[in-house]
Specification:
single chain, 304 residues, mainly alpha, Alpha-lytic protease prodomain-like, Alpha-Beta Plaits, 2 domains
């Protein structure tokens, strides 16, 4: 996914979450519902997360400097990790503690069920139509024939991953909040409002944990996917003058930047000029199949 496509997804999610957060807080104030308050904090956390992603995208595009000689592509991974932290603390923990307090000290809501359900319905429409559907469409395009979980584990684009997970749990949170409100109304038991809020909190914490685990690998220095490494190997061995490739090391410097380091054994008796030409042909062959290979380092050995 290009940087412009990622930015569009984030801006759509930002606009949707900001508007939804305001509506949910107003509905929570009118009705006194803890589940609606939890949903308000959820949307507020999502809004802040989109700002984190925009910051990461902006910083990751900065040109290399003396201090950051490979560029700052990993900024995107750092801010995606911050999204997980903020979602855990600002969304999950707050929602759970508010729900626990309501469960321990229940009191009947002051009405406003219709307002809550209308707001949740509008929120669901915004989440599904504005944010979740474009993200899911892009994810399905990227994963191709792979299983969904495998595609999630192998994706190197934290923006798509965060938006997809956030919007998925947002839709589930709306369903849980609506269920809690309706059950509390039907049974006359306000404990269900607290249960819904705690459930939303647990969902947010689990989502934050998954995002943290996935982005941690990218932040530490995850290699390119198996398919990309196979494509590089095939491209190298297709170049005339190469006997074999002894080592291939890759690392993602950003969603669309891959560092490639490889050792090749070349045919004997090649001159320096021929080795230079061979290096240029290798780089061209690699970038032809993997355009994201922006940093390529090649070491030669001679087959004696």
């Amino acid at each position: 996914m290009s940087a412009s496509q990622s930015r569009v997804l984030v801006l759509l999610a930002l606009a949707a979450n900001a508007g939804i957060a305001v509506m949910k807080f107003v509905a929570a104030f009118i009705s006194g519902s803890t589940a609606m308050l939890a949903e308000g904090f959820h949307s507020l956390a999502d809004t802040g997360n989109q700002l984190f992603l925009l910051r990461g995208a902006q910083q990751s595009r900065l040109a290399p400097t003396v201090r950051f000689q490979f560029g700052q592509g990993k900024e995107a991974y750092f801010w995606a990790f911050m999204v997980a932290v903020f979602l855990f603390v600002g969304g999950g923990v707050v929602a759970f503690t508010e729900g626990l307090d309501r469960f321990r000290h229940p009191h009947q809501a002051e009405g406003g069920l219709a307002v809550n359900l209308i707001v949740l319905g509008i929120a669901a429409a915004f989440e599904l139509g504005v944010a979740f559907r474009p993200a899911l469409k892009e994810f399905n395009r990227r994963r191709g024939t792979r299983r969904a979980w495998r595609a999630i584990r192998e994706t190197k684009d934290p923006t798509l991953l965060v938006v997809l997970f956030e919007d998925s749990v947002a839709v589930l949170g709306i369903i849980v909040a609506a269920a809690g409100l309706l059950i509390a109304e039907w049974t006359g038991d306000p404990h269900w409002d607290g249960v819904a809020s705690m459930t939303i909190g647990v969902m947010l914490c689990l989502t934050a944990w998954i995002l943290a685990v996935e982005t941690k690998g990218l932040l530490v220095g995850e290699s390119a996917s198996r398919e990309v490494r196979s494509a590089i190997r095939a491209a190298v061995l297709s170049v005339g003058g190469i006997e074999t490739m002894e080592r291939l090391l890759t690392m993602h410097l950003g969603p669309d930047e891959i560092l490639v380091n490889l050792d090749v054994v070349v045919e004997p008796d090649k001159s320096e000029a021929e080795l230079d030409d061979l290096t240029r042909r290798l780089e061209a062959a690699i970038t032809a199949v993997v355009p994201q290979a922006t940093r390529i380092f090649i070491e030669h050995g001679r087959d004696l």
